[in-house]
Amino acid sequence: MARTDGGANLSQAVRSFAKFVDKYLPTLGVDPADARLDGRKVDLVEVIHVWEEDLRQHHGLRSNSPYEKANCLLTLIEQRALKDPSMPEALRVRSQAPTAYPTYKSEPLDEFSNAERIALRDAARNAIRSLEARLARGRELLERGVDPQVGGWHEPANLLWAATRPSLLTGKVLEPQFRQNVLSWPEPVKALLPTAPDGTLLKRGFRYLVAELGRLLYPTEADLQAFRVLLMLGMSDTSPEELHQFQLSDMEFTDGGVRLVQRKMRAHRVRADLHPDPEQAAEAEAQEFTGDGAWTVPGLLRRLLAVTELSRTVFPDADPWLFLAVERRYRGVLEAKLAGFRDRERRFGGWIAEQRDAAGKPLKISEPHEIRRLRKTTKVVRAVALGGTVSDLAGDDHHVEVYRMHYAHGTTAHILAGQSINRAQKWVFDRMTTPARPVLVTEEAEQHLEVTEVAEDLGLDAEQAKALRTGELDMGLVNCRNPWDSPHRNDAKVCHVAPAMCMLCRNAVVFTSQIPRLLLLSDHIEHMRANLAPRHWQALWGRQAAALAEVFEECADLVPAARREIAELGLRLDLPLGMRTEFDR
Known about the structure:
Elements: H1 2-5, H2 8-24, H3 44-59, H4 65-83, H5 89-96, H6 114-142, H7 148-151, H8 156-163, H9 171-174, H10 187-190, H11 206-215, H12 221-234, H13 240-244, E1 251-254, E2 257-264, E3 269-276, H14 278-285, H15 297-307, H16 309-314, E4 324-328, E5 334-338, H17 348-354, H18 372-386, H19 390-394, H20 400-406, H21 411-433, E6 439-441, H22 443-447, H23 452-457, H24 462-469, E7 479-480, E8 508-511, H25 515-531, H26 534-554, H27 559-569, H28 577-584
């Protein structure tokens, strides 16, 4: 445990417990010196329990400090118990048990909505365009600049020249060159200070002049936030911590794009990912490429390196961080350092507050303004695009369980899951509430079944009409349009449930000459109603009874004649032996 922080957490836990013992034991009339791991005068198990409660009250319910300190202390005691047999057994057992209070688990962050994602993307792109335009103006002005000690300090171009030699651009150097009253400064220099829309100066003084001169040449932390936003939206397999720690040595531009070496410190894992560049692929196929391709990951990295190129030239001793920001630091001098994104105005939320939409209104982005929500947003976009199982959506940068606990809870994932469930339920309900019914062919239509217009009205083709007319498709109860297209099986084999399920099949075709068969089946179903429990009868015969009732209603005038035919000819159900056993029991 000490290898990660040099033992700081362990020593802090020991000091915290020792201070509590010195304060708590005298209230019980016990000398704190009697509190020993190998002693039995003080019940340290009880003292540790009271100490954990005190930590809980002191740090609050949402703090993990009580868990971390108690876990460190118990770990040290457990290690001691392995070597010291004189330690009390109760203390030994307590050291092997978990802490009294586990870590605090806050509500997982939800992703940004798709509208918010697009708004952040567009705002970041506009911010980068503004940054590049500002730097272009500054560097164009810089080309005309000379040493202000020779050309004068009242020329903005010369002041920018001094900004490339930061030691020449400090308040102490500038103070003798200008009057104390800012309003008396030369107009070109005064125009460099930030102003309100009506021209009123918002900030005055040399510190702001130095900062504004730096902004004309170098990107600040606030400027780099836009690149951070777009890269997070474009790299679904990169965490904010990994992106923040990128250095120039971690990037390698190839013919196919850019290869990035990513280090996930919490997982102790290093991996390399290749982000393809569609612009280069298109250029390889055509002589002239008409698209910009600048908002891809390789394009963003190239633009980021371009805007920070002068920063690396002027500050060669700065560490080669990808997010290298130049700010006026505490000594009043421009310095280049890794963008921390920690100050309130430079955090992700502060950046959002400064952005405007196309109508000039502040962006409406749901809180909290956490950069980690961007990573979840990219995961959700990937899930929507790919679909599939959780293992497909988890990707290669974490396990399925991590995805389930930290990403699958999001609003979009719940909506997609709900839509899938609704579609499945609708399909089932449609099949239950709108069952297929046979097609009833009247006696007149049966005589002209092979006529094209009549067959088309019944949904039949010429071959089916001919086969039906000759009795080739008689299934025992009714006819069938296509026995090889049964809705009760997925393969292309002949239907295996005919004639028992014919009355519930979309392929069934009923001729009026088959009405006596259907009446016999209806009589048998009514006979079974008296022999079966109502719920059982409804499950076996309810839907078929309803389908038969609809057929008899359509041809009510033919039913009496069919009844007489059954009585005169002594008809009975003509079914295969296997189906008869089903009907007769």
